[in-house]
Amino acid sequence: NKQILLAKRPVGTPDQDTFKFVETDIKQPENGEVLVRTIYVSVDPYMRGRMIDAPSYVAPYELNDVLGGGTIGEVVESNSNQFAQGDIVLGQYGWQTYYTAKEDEIRTIDKDIAPISTHLGILGMTGLTAYFGLLDIGKPKEGETVVISGAAGAVGSVVGQIAKIKGARVVGIAGTDEKNRYLKEELGFDEAINYNTTNNIEEDIAKASPNGVDVYFDNVGGEISDAVHANLNKYARISICGAISKYNIEGEDIGPRIQMTLIKKSASMQGFTLYDYADRFPEGSEALAQWLQEGKLKYEETIKEGFDNIPDAFLDLFEGNNIGKLLVKVDNQ
Ligand code: NDP
Hints:
Order of helices and strands: EEEHEEEEHEHEHEHEHEHEHEHE
Structural class: alpha/beta
CATH superfamily of the largest domain: NAD(P)-binding Rossmann-like Domain
Distance between the termini: 12 Å
CATH architecture of the largest domain: 3-Layer(aba) Sandwich
Helix content: 25-40%
Shape: globular
Protein name: NADP-dependent oxidoreductase
Strand content: 15-25%
Pfam families: ADH_N_2, ADH_zinc_N
Largest sheet: 7 strands, mixed
InterPro entries: ADH-like_C, ADH_N_2, ER, GroES-like_sf, MDR_fam, NAD(P)-bd_dom_sf
Keywords: Oxidoreductase
Bound molecules: NADPH dihydro-nicotinamide-adenine-dinucleotide phosphate
Domain Enoyl reductase (ER): 15-328
């Protein structure tokens, strides 16, 4: 059994020294346990936060522990009457080729709706984040303008499509022209801005949003968000989902203060974590599955092959090397 452990707490951008590969024995499942072969591993920006030893909404990783996170796997041996060999299950056992799971810590997934990998993306954590963060905090109304940063990623690409379903004008901000073409041509975004090539992002947002910005779904923070804030309408809502542009900085982020903008615009800003909505996951999952089946939602996955490439895939998130959900397919058949 191969595992990837947290070898060192990163300062700044993680590198290969952050990770340690080890081989361990497979633990046979005891009563109420199953042995699972990992098929897909999710790599997610929030994992960067867990590498620091600081209190947050999820506990930090311990040094020399397996890097935990979402996985899809197949039950290869079962000592539980709730699971049979061959069941496809979702677990949080992270970066390892096999794991022994307690029956109450995994759940079977529906293989019939869409490929199993979607349960780590559009039908899983990132899809639900988009659903609740947009609809509960952003509350877009028909005809309003919704701006999304990190727009071509796993969460952002779903936010934009849900905003279109709700009848909004949708403006995405992403890092490459290829991503922006995808947003407009494939996903139906009205406008898309490349923050890496623009000369004046604030002006570009104003041009793309002739009626101003009513909802800002923020995945990245920093200067991109400052530029969106300058274009807010009265009663605008800001849904703070993430701040990936700041996850690897050393020290505190310093920027313009936003209080006066919020006052002048009677605007509101709310952070959230997906787990605030844990009791409503069935509602979100049903809506996402239905829209997917009706063809109202599309999705993209960037899938890297090979267990050994998991750390590289994780680092790709900070380089923008993904469109849609970034996953690793594990080669342990
Ligand atoms: P993505 O699929 O969006 O991948 C990350 C993307 O972020 C990259 O592709 C890159 O795209 C962009 N990015 C990376 N560095 C920067 C930078 N310095 N400035 C601007 N953009 C950057 O990841 P997810 O969809 O999984 O997550 C998106 C955000 O949502 C993250 O901030 C994450 O932490 C947050 N999140 C929050 C949750 C919650 O419960 N609150 C749950 C899940 C995710 P590009 O080419 O455009 O730069």
